[in-house]
Inverse folding.
């Protein structure tokens, strides 16, 4: 058995907490420490530091906390309202908005697929968005009132 200090291995431990562990576990802790030191050395050598305001997702990964059940329910309700409003749109607007926003197609690609001009697609999408705003605005008023 080997004595280790948990404070050395767990950052949330604020005070010394010594514990007897098996030789295999002690070697595993030592190997992890060596791997982390080697990683820090490589980062330092290659100057691979990341700024959290860089916009490359590091800040989000570092700060993102899982969503609460309440947030998930609110998001699901918002999606249901959006899909209900989408179902009320005329077929062309519905199809074009879905292709543009959900499938990530450009207006040019949608126009080519439907054999119409890009301006037609743009007008249709904007009219559909206005209809969605009206429909969702009415849903919002109904929920509050």
């Amino acid at each position: 058995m080997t004595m280790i200090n948990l404070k050395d291995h767990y950052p949330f431990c604020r005070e010394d907490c010594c514990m007897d562990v098996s030789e295999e576990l002690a070697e595993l802790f030592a190997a992890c420490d060596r791997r982390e030191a080697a990683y820090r050395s490589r980062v330092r050598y290659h100057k691979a530091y990341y700024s959290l305001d860089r916009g490359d997702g590091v800040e989000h990964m570092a700060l993102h906390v899982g969503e609460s059940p309440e947030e998930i329910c609110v998001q699901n309700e918002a999606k249901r309202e959006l899909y209900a409003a989408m179902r009320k749109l005329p077929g062309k607007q519905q199809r074009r908005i879905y292709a543009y926003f959900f499938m990530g197609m450009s207006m040019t690609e949608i126009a080519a697929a439907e054999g119409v001009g890009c301006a037609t697609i743009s007008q249709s999408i904007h009219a559909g968005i206005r209809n969605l705003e009206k429909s969702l605005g009415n849903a919002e008023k109904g929920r509050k009132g």
